[in-house]
Amino acid sequence: MARILVIEDDDATAQEIVTELGGCGHDVAHVGDGADALERAMREPFDVITLDRMLPGIDGLTLVERLRERRILTPVLMISALSDVDDRIAGLRAGGDDYLVKPFASDEMAMRVEVLLRRRRQPAESAILRVGAIEIDLIRREVRVDGDPVRLLHMEFRLLEFLARQRGDVVSRRIIFEQVWGYYFDPGANLINVHIARLRKKLDRPGRPSAIVTVKGEGYRLDAV
Amino acid sequence: MPSDPLRLRDIRNTSTFRLTLLLGLVFAAGVVALLGLIYGLSARELNARSDRILRLEAARLLSVPVAALPDTIRAEIVRSESGLNYFALVSRDGERIAGNIRPVAGAILDRPRDLPAGAGLPGPVRLLAVRASSGETVLIGRDISPVVDLRRRVFEILVASGLGIAPMILIAGIALSIPPLRRVRDLRRASREIAAGDLDARMPILGRGDELDLFAGTVNAMVEEVGRVVAQVKSVTDAIAHDLRTPLTRVRSQLYRARQLPGIDPALAARVEAATGDLDAVLERFAALLRISELEAGSRRAGFGTVLLDPLIAGVCDLYEPLAEERAIALMAGSLPGAVVHGDEKLLFEAISNLVDNAIKFAPAGGRIEIALSRAARETCITIRDDGPGIPVDQRAAVLRRFHRGSDAGDTPGSGLGLSVVAAIMHLHQFALEFDDAGPGLVARIRCPA
Question: Which of A85, A195, A216 sits opposite B322 (nearest CB)?
Answer without folding.
Answer: A195
